[in-house]
Amino acid sequence: MTTAATRGDRRISPVFLGIAAVTAVAGWAVWTGTGGATGFAVFLFVTGAWIVSLCLHEYAHARTALHSGDLSVGAKGYLTLNPLKYTHALLSIVLPVLFVVMGGIGLPGGAVYIERARIHGRWKHSLISAAGPLTNVAFAIVCTAPFWLDALDGVPLAFQYALAFLAMLQVTAAILNSLPIPGLDGYGVIEPWLSYKIRRQVEPIAPFGLIAVFAILWIPGVNIVFFDGIDALLGLLGVDDLQRYCGYDLYRFWRAFFDEQNPVCAVG
């Protein structure tokens, strides 16, 4: 019989602390321009912060499940924020990072296995699924706060661009993962309210939902409409499309070896 999570089951993992430390150091390097390799520092900062947000996204699922009745999440290591403890490391870490590199899209993958039979009540099941995207919403608010608070005086351009790109990742993650598509959290929110027959019919295609969304976004027309909407939303939060674009341009530091530096995004 599974008991409540022990203190050790909830202790923050050294792996997570290491990732957070690398992110902090990279952020400092972006802010100060230390080392001269701004693009690489932006890459480390944004990637590190993105992985931290992925860990927090999955932690939110697990923590909500714990308080809803699934006491097994502690023994599985989900409360330690250790990405290596996730059920699908490929889906939870590797693919989301590849999505960022290839298309500048933030899309968390499935990672924690919740023992749903331990949880009673449709609202609890829905809240567990909603907890992840809500974490991305909170992260997006934090990232965009300097912009909509007009508090960018003295903030180096490189850091502004990196923060704008990171904000875009969080906004896209919150929106895409909230879609009612099998395999995504948005579907998990409505699934408890569907009939047993519909759930059984949808179950076989759920593992492919994440890939399907990314593939659809590669369609030029869909991609343009989607990012126009993202730009409009970020604009309401004080982030303009140039800041987001330059953040992504700096993030792909390896392009500097093949292309001339974009003068529009020059930071020094």
From TrEMBL:
Membrane topology type: Multi-pass membrane protein
GO MF annotations, alphabetized: peptidase activity
GO terms under biological process: proteolysis
Keywords: Cell membrane, Hydrolase, Membrane, Metal-binding, Metalloprotease, Protease, Transmembrane, Transmembrane helix, Zinc
UniProt xrefs under InterPro entries: Metallopeptidase_M50B (IPR052348), Rip2-like (IPR044537)
Transmembrane segments: 12-31, 37-57, 93-114, 126-149, 161-184, 205-227
Cofactor: Zn(2+)
Keyword Membrane: yes
Subcellular localization, as worded in the UniProt entry: Cell membrane
The keyword Protease is annotated on this UniProt entry: yes
Family, similarity comment: Belongs to the peptidase M50B family.
PANTHER family in the record: ZINC METALLOPROTEASE MJ0611-RELATED (PTHR35864), ZINC METALLOPROTEASE YWHC-RELATED (PTHR35864:SF1)
Name under which the protein is recorded: Site-2 protease family protein
Species of the source: Streptomyces stephensoniae
